[in-house]
Every structure is written in structure tokens, then in C-alpha cells.
Amino acid sequence: MSTHHPLPGHPDPSSPWVFGTRELGRRPGAMKPYTRSIPAPAEPERLGLDTIGVPAGSPVELAVRLESVTEGIYVSGTVHAALEGECARCLDPVTDEADVELGELFVYPDTATDETTEADELPRVIDDYVDVEQTVRDALVLTLPLAPLCREDCPGLCPDCGEKWADLAPDHGHETLDPRWAALRERLSAE
Description:
Layout: E1 18-20, E2 31-39, E3 52-53, E4 59-69, E5 72-86, E6 93-107, H1 112-116, E7 129-131, H2 133-143, H3 182-190
Antiparallel strand pairs: 1-7, 2-4, 3-5, 4-5, 5-6
């Protein structure tokens, strides 16, 4: 059984993130919809941030439309994925869902847009394929909260004992003594 190894920088046609554009041709207005459920990648390619992201292996639901335009292939649609993380205040587990809109132009080679933009400004159509993984990753990560919360009014943790404020008595507190008075306290407690 032969395996296909794409050239570096070229999309792998066997990847679920890669879509073929050959049947659209370069006829502006030609369009084709796709729906795919793709397992989320694991570390280190995880979709998300350190605090919240798409769990490895969970489905990333794509509903996209590839449309041929004068300068390339316009990819639009939605992404839906479950999220898991931890509360930035109390460290409890957090679950949520993300629904993200996509809209990205993949530029044909040898067009005015290709010649007037840097390679990292817009993605390219390479060998009649578009790879939407980075587009999905960028759109998804930009919508994630930097500090996810288990609830909006989460009180967090007590800075002295590390217990959750929500689990502590209302009169919970810790005696704090100015370190400058520590020697006097020790002397008085010794007598």
C-alpha cells in the first residue's frame, strides 16, 4: 500500500482539513458546500489556549462553502466545537461550546492579489487544494476567553489558605500580623 507524502508547504489531500477545488475551476460564482466532522488534534497542535480549548479527539463540526471568485477561492461557513478548561479564579472545570463564523480568501497563484500580498497575509490555493485548518484555528482561538470563568460572579480562592471562597464560611479570615511586630508578639507570648 503506497502512502502519499505531500511536499513541505503543500496541503495533504488525505487531511480532513483539506478541500479540493478542481471541480470549481476558475469560474467565478461556482460554489460547493461541505459538511465535515473532524476530530480535534491533540497536543501540541491543540485547538485552544492553555486555559480552555477543544478536547483532543472531540468533533469539530464544519459547515463550509467554497466559492470561486476572480482572485481565488472564498471559504465561508461555521465551526462548532465543545470546549473544556478550568476557571481562572477557582480552578474548577469549565465546559462550554463555541460557534464561530469563517470567511477567508484563498488566493490563486499568479493573480494580482498573489503578487501584491505577502505569503503570510493570505492563504493560497496550492495544487487545487485549500487547507482550512489554520483558518479554523485562528477564528476559534480569537473567540476564546483568556480567563474563562465557571460563573460570572465566581469569588475565586482565598489567597491565604487556597480554599474556594464559595465553600468557606462568611466570616472566614486569617489573622495577619505586621512582620515588624512579630518579635514583640513572640516576647509577649513567651511570658
